[in-house]
Amino acid sequence: MSFMTLIIGGYAGIHRRQRMGGQLLSFRILGSLEVVQEDAVCTPTAPKARQTLALLLLRSNHIVSTSALVDELWGDNPPPTVVTTAQSYIYQLRKVLHPRGRQAAPGEVALITRSPGYVLARHEGQLDHDLFLQVAGQGRALLEQDQDKTSACERLCIQGDMPVFACARGRGLQAPHRKVDE
């Protein structure tokens, strides 16, 4: 299993997980795209469902329009049944996020239909990308304090193999991919 471990000033930790109906839920996009409940990986296997999940995660808590989702998945060549097909990927993701068909309780991760598209509502820290951005900001701050690069790297180490967004990428995932690479 691929995951990112961050060591900050001697403290090692993995991103926060939310308790969901008695289960912990977290998301990983640095390395393999994964949905983790408790310690079980329950990520969708269909490539387009994974790509849909990646887009929703990177834009979580904001509306992702159906047209942006279609553009991400098919670019300029959508299938004739584009709306139905996109809805089937959303349905697959809801089955992963809401096992046994139950509705999300207030404060839990939820995949919500909101015109003109969908919102993946989640808490800060449930996505490894959140922690990565926090740590990267701390690293920049260390370097801006005129500390030499070696000292900053010693205080702020990122360990692990981190191919970012290990899933197919359309136009919507290209810009965030470049940002993390920087």
UniProtKB/TrEMBL annotation:
InterPro entries: AfsR-DnrI-RedD_regulator, OmpR/PhoB-type_DNA-bd, Sig_transdc_resp-reg_C-effctor, WH-like_DNA-bd_sf. One of its GO terms (biological process) is regulation of DNA-templated transcription. Residues 15-122 bind DNA. Residues 15-122 form the OmpR/PhoB-type domain. Pfam families: Trans_reg_C. GO terms for molecular function: DNA binding. Keywords: DNA-binding. This is Transcriptional regulatory protein, C terminal. It comes from Sinosporangium album.
